Amino acid sequence: MAVRTVPIDFVRSAVATAERLGVDIGLLLGRAGVAPELLEQDRARVTVDQVAATMRQLWRITGDELFGLGPAPVPRGAIRLVGFGLVACPDLGSAIERFGEYQRLLPGFPPMAVTTEGGRTRCTLDTSVLAAGEELLTVFLLAALHRIVSWGIGRRVALRQAEFPYPRPRNVADYDLVFGAPLVFDAAIAAITFDSELLRAPLTRSEADLIDWTRNAPIDVLSRRDYGTSLAEQVRKILTRGLSGGATAERWPTADEVAKRLSMSPQTVRRKLGEEGTSITQIREDILRDAAVASLVRGDETVESLSARLGFSEPSAFRRAFRRWTGSPPGSYRGASPV
């Protein structure tokens, strides 16, 4: 499975929350394995495990499912207790209806509403009740809603649209990976939309499954499924094979080979990727960057062996590339796994 990283923005948001709560930021970052200097680099990336470690620390500190950002605390474990009442429902539609009845038990949770029209079901979250500027919490809540629905029926739910009540962010490509659907920004309210036929899908999970799923939180929400719908994601899947099994001798697919696998002309691939703000070269660099960050955080390779595995002629070339990708030297990431 290809390694993915996420923008430093996720950790920045957690740090901003911690600062408001008077938490020791150094301790928080140390336990997440994130070097403080990375917060100053807009290009910095972190692993899903690092973000999860940060969020778990905030959960522990605040005792609140929403990290103290909601209109009222949502005590730790409250969502799981509600889940016990939902897994007994026969299908997704009845579970959503029951959750509507349970909302009064969660006064700190953003109000959710569900409407069905023209074969589509739209779930909205009124995130205006959250602390101002918490865009990343909005993403987390919508992603969590999507993942929970998919988990409950035991299969991926293809979203038809995802809406966000704020301007288009700079890292919009990460949104496609998370939601795999047409994205609408500056929307009136946060929402996801899916086919109404899924409301009849039976729930397949038990209470034991729910306990296991929540014990692993928030990994299953943060982990990017293979949901990307853009051409860039299709190209990434093809190019990722260049690093499969860590085989350094395996060459990258050429632009012509990529186009052939997509049943397109090379010119069409270039044009469509350009419209998405990327290119084959950029996607290849993103793959190398994510693989490098993940390895350095794990700390199980020397810079020399990592640079060779990723196909660089010498470590100095890798170091230059890494600084270009992330704004920091490899040493800022090396061996920084959460403690």
TrEMBL record:
Pfam families associated with the record: Arabinose_bd, HTH_18
Record keywords, A-Z: DNA-binding, Transcription, Transcription regulation
Residue span, HTH araC/xylS-type domain: 233-336
Superkingdom of the organism of origin: Bacteria
An annotated GO cellular component: cytosol
Signal peptide region: none
GO molecular function, one term: DNA-binding transcription factor activity
Protein name: AraC family transcriptional regulator
Provenance organism: Nocardia tenerifensis
